[in-house]
Design brief:
- The protein has 275 residues and is an alpha/beta fold.
- The chain has ten helices and ten strands.
- Strand 7, helix 7 and strand 8 form a beta-alpha-beta unit.
């Protein structure tokens, strides 16, 4: 059965994402897997930590996951199947290993930058997950709770839409939650989309997504990511779909620390689906 994977380090932001994942799994009637990855830190002498320390970390994490599972099941309006898993090593590699052996619906992670100390699921791990995971990845802002996804946005640069827009996933998501679909296109002053590009892209999108009756929104701004996030908040979108790809606006976002913070602190969950 389809399963949502929710990695957690038991921090407030990651637990909020776990609750988001649990509520989504409950609504969809699918399974939930809770994952904790115990990092194995190498010292400057490259001497691995004692086996006893690793065993204690694993035992503690297993106990915390068991307690978390019990709490979710107690609060869940419907019974859902929850599995727990503790791994050691690299976070993103651990996520990949789990996703490869289960029918993954999505990975749900939290993101927060309220202080300068990188959290377990913030910064490098979240950005690396966006860039490298081939499964749908939902990044949940720290104070956002799961809603029924009445409005979903798709950020689209109108380039190579036939090979980059995940049509099947979008259709399935919109239909599952009976959502409104809003397609957002922001062109910059330095690289305006030509009338031909716009016409071809909208024609193709209409052919593929027309049954969903999407609403199109066009903006001109050199602050692409900020314009999209502002639109999402102003129009009360409950999810924003992005498709990281080479030369895309989102790929550029990942290279700018300021822009990373804008995206990761957005008030709207971001669903990243690779082309």
């Amino acid at each position: 059965m389809k399963t949502i994977l929710a990695p957690t380090d038991f921090s407030e932001v990651s637990l909020n994402a776990v609750n988001y994942a649990a509520q989504m799994a409950n609504i969809l009637g699918i399974n939930l897997t809770l994952l904790h990855v115990c990092p194995v830190t190498m010292t400057y002498t490259d001497v691995p930590p004692p086996a006893l320390y690793i065993e204690e970390s694993i035992s503690k994490a297993e106990k915390q996951l068991k307690e978390l599972k019990a709490k979710i099941l107690k609060d869940a309006p419907k019974k859902i199947t929850i599995k727990t898993k503790v791994l050691t090593g690299d976070v993103v590699s651990g996520i990949k290993n789990i996703c490869e052996v289960m029918d993954t619906y999505a990975v749900v992670m939290g993101a927060d930058s309220s202080n300068t100390i990188d959290r377990f699921l913030f910064g490098g791990n979240t950005i690396e997950a966006i860039k490298s995971l081939s499964w749908p990845l939902i990044i949940v802002p720290s104070k956002v709770h799961f809603g029924r996804l009445h409005k979903i946005g798709l950020a689209c640069d109108f380039r190579d839409v036939a090979s980059t827009v995940p049509v099947d996933e979008i259709i399935k998501l919109v239909k599952e939650f009976n959502s409104e679909l809003h397609i957002l296109h922001v062109q910059t002053e330095s690289r305006k989309t030509s009338d031909l590009e716009t016409a071809n892209a909208t024609r193709w999108l209409h052919d593929q997504l027309g049954a969903l009756n999407p609403k199109y929104h066009f903006m001109v701004s050199d602050k692409v990511e900020k314009s999209i996030n502002d639109f999402a908040e102003k129009n009360k979108l409950e999810m924003l779909i992005v498709t990281p790809k080479k030369h895309s606006f989102f790929n550029k976002i990942l290279k700018s620390s300021k822009s990373k913070n804008i995206v990761l602190q957005a008030q709207v969950p971001v669903l990243s689906i690779h082309e």
